[in-house]
Amino acid sequence: MDKGLHFKFCVITTMLLLRESSQTGEKNDPKMLAASRSEEGLPTLTVTTILEDPYVMVRSAELEGYCIDLLKALAATLRFRYKVKVVGDGQYGAVSSSGNWTGMIGEILRQEADIAVAPLTVTSAREEVVSFTTPFLQTGIGILLRKDTVSQEMSFFHFLSPFSKETWTGLLFAYVLTCFCLFLVARLSPCEWNEPKNEENHFTFLNSLWFGAGALALQGVTPRPKALSVRVIAAVWWLFTIALLAAYIANFTALLSSGSEQLPIQTFEDLVKQRKLEFGTLDGSSTFYFFKNSKNPIHQMIYEYMDKRRDHVLVKTYQEAVQRVMESNYAFIGESISQDLAAARHCNLIRAPEVIGARGFGIATTKASLWTKKLSIAVLKLRESGDLDYLRNKWWETSCLHKSRERWSPLQPQALGGLFLTLAIGLALGVIAAVVELSNKSRHAAGHVKKSCCSIFTEEMCARLRIKENKRQSQETSGRANA
């Protein structure tokens, strides 16, 4: 037993000694020492930001979002460590009544933070006190609305909306011209009307109009064409109507599924003129000062409205603005890129088409900071590599994929130019075929009666168009009047 215990004790002691020697070797490894020293030697930046979806959000006691992913990519590129803090007063940065800067701009000026990575708009006033990098996101100022607060009743003639006025005018002209060509060719073609003196021509002008209208309704109507020339015109008109009806149905379906035509508020001028909705923006934001400093009369009216009702229409946070738009008759004026996100995640919201004041989001640093140029170059590299586009698509993913985000517009005549050209060529071919048919009949008749082909052709034309009969009737009428 003593020998057995002694053996076990020796084995355990040997294993412990080997383990300690291996750990000592790892600590003395030059590669491990260099990695730890390089990690310790990296500069640490204090980053201020603001909570706003999807830029910075709190999930499971950790921060995530577009700006957090951007910060990670910049840290990996420029090799620095960072410590993120949320701005204390929840503001972006504006001059207070005491003359001091608030928000993230104020924290940078007070050296409470080294940089600000957030949806912070680059403005001239901020550029005077801090430095900005190259913008990592481009945006503008838009209007966020709730669909049911701005929808209006469809007009009584809403079914005419798929085509523009010019297209309807061209369609009416094509219809009348085609019916006239049917009427003319049916009278000229001997295969359709062989004996003008003894037979009745069924293709009168009224019957031709009825024939064209029946084709528009995809209904077969009489009279039925017999001559090749009349059939050519009828076939081309049928093809024209089928393509036209397909375009009308497709555009009408797009009109019904699109909300842009039902928006009475398309521009900022429309917003000012209406009285149903209140509107405002973020208190102290760059958007508010954009309207304050603008010389545009419409923008001045918007600023005066918001300034007089400052306590009621201005909101503190972006989340509060979205919630207010969803729950009341309120229109939010703010960054268009953030409004696109709200419309993507809340299918009952929509952004008005007009966007003004093109601007960008940049990273703010202290004046004369060495990090400004480095960060700008890193942002450009991320843009060139497609990383910024990847982050944009990642955090702006929509749950309303079935909704079309393109603005609907009536179909213009240019889109149907080829269709109208085909119809014109078909009408010309029909008329030419009718003339050829009449010429062939005149040539055969000239051989029997021993007259020239031109004289027979002229007589046939006059008989079919009833030119001579009209002259004779007028002569008889004048003779009776003289008697």
Q: Keyphrases for this structure?
A:
483 residues; alpha/beta; D-Maltodextrin-Binding Protein, domain 2; Helix Hairpins; elongated; disordered C terminus
Description:
The protein is an alpha/beta fold and 483 residues long. It folds into 4 domains: 41-136 and 362-401, D-Maltodextrin-Binding Protein, domain 2 (3-Layer(aba) Sandwich); 139-152 and 262-359, D-Maltodextrin-Binding Protein, domain 2 (3-Layer(aba) Sandwich), CATH 3.40.190.10; 158-257, Helix Hairpins; 416-468. The protein has 20 helices and 12 strands. It has helices at residues 2-27, 30-41, 66-78, 103-109, 124-127, 147-150, 165-188, 205-216, 228-257, 268-273, 286-293, 297-308, 310-313, 318-327, 336-345, 371-384, 387-395, 417-449, 453-465, 467-482, and strands at 44-49, 57-59, 62-64, 81-86, 115-116, 131-132, 137-146, 278-280, 330-335, 349-351, 356-361, 364-365. The chain has a 5-stranded mixed β-sheet with strand order 4-1-5-12-6, with helices on both faces. Strands 7, 8, 9, 10 and 11 form a 5-stranded mixed β-sheet that branches. It has a two-stranded antiparallel sheet with strand order 2-3. Strand 2 (57-59) and strand 3 (62-64) form a beta hairpin. The chain is elongated, with a radius of gyration of 40 Å. The chain starts with a helix and ends with a helix. Residues 16-38, 402-406 and 468-483 have low confidence and may be disordered.
